[in-house]
Amino acid sequence: MFGTDLLMQLDPTDLLLKLASVTPWEVFEELFSTHYTASIGAPNKPIRLMLGY
Question: What is the dihedral sign for C-alpha 45, 49, 51, 53?
Fold first, then answer.
């Protein structure tokens, strides 16, 4: 279980898995980065982490 890649354990026909692979995450992170500042509070987290993907 721990020696195999997680993606190999997932169903490749799952719609959310397909959506996650074609979503331009870098674009979302760049757009949302304007709403975060490093000097106040905790640093921002990746958008995928916040969405649970």
Answer: positive
Q: For residues 37 and 40, what is the distance between their CA atoms, to the nearest angstrom?
A: 6
Rounded to a whole number of angstroms, the CA Rg of the chain reads 15
Tokens matching residue 4: 């195999």
pTM, to two decimals: 0.57
Domain ranges of the chain: 13-51
pLDDT digits (tens, 9 = 90+) for 15-32: 988 988 899 988 988 888
Which amino acid appears at position 50 of this protein? Answer: M
In the chain, the percentage of residues whose pLDDT exceeds 70 is: 89
